[in-house]
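A further point concerns the way the authors explain their paired sequence and structure data. Nothing conveys this as quickly as seeing an actual entry. An entry of this sort, consisting of the sequence and the corresponding backbone structure tokens, reads as follows:
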Amino acid sequence: MQQISSVNNEKIKSIHKLLQKKYRQHTGLYLIEGFHLVTEALQAQLPVQALLGTQASLDRLQAETNIDLNDDKIYLINEAICRKLSSTHNSQAIFMVLKQAQPKHFSFNYGKWVILDNLTDPGNVGTIIRTADAAGFTGVIFSPTSVDLYNPKVQRSMQGSQFHLEIITADLPAALGSFHEAGIPIYISLLDRTAKPLTDFSPVSQLALIIGNEAHGAEHSLIPLADEKLYIPIKGKAESLNAAVAAGIMIYHFA
């Protein structure tokens, strides 16, 4: 274990920059914080680039996970550094730097997938991923225009489900082409006269489910690529459902 006591330390300044998307993209690294996420990452046996915490936090982590604190990738830091690195108001004083794991090529030829088309709210995205995880889905595909997967708010809201699923950023038309080639049906959530109510559909063994942008819905260019258009009937006077709530209803319907 190494000790760092200054907020102006070069390593701390580099890690702090990981709160910025452009620096995450430049380095291929990202930062998580909090005991739950750090523990989930350790359980997933991900290669740790750096683990930082106060003495009390590192002692707690060791007690809970039996981690060896003698590793030279572990850094003892103080409260001032914790405040600099934290993206929350109430830091748990434990941080981990991980390498981004985005495959350059992937064939979507099996399973149940949720496709996020330009979703921008970190809370919605995290909730959808947690729901997909709970429902036993294979993975989630981000469009390049969706919120950054490695955004600290997205990482927190996923609550560790990011370590249980395949999560991939991909060109959506290309991904949908892979699903077509594999014979996996594609469903799109859409408010359209030609869409069918969700209750008309039965659970299936494999599928790709497209969830559109919170305000504007799915991209028009994706609609012809779907096999079925569906919607959730509104029985009350609400104009629409929150994107994460709607996704949760559909995910469990097809689970």
User: Anything to note?
Assistant: The chain has two domains: 2-99, 112-254. Residues 2-99 form a domain with the 60s Ribosomal Protein L30; Chain: A; fold (CATH 3.30.1330.30). The CA atoms of residues 51 and 76 lie 9 Å apart. The longest helix spans residues 122-134.
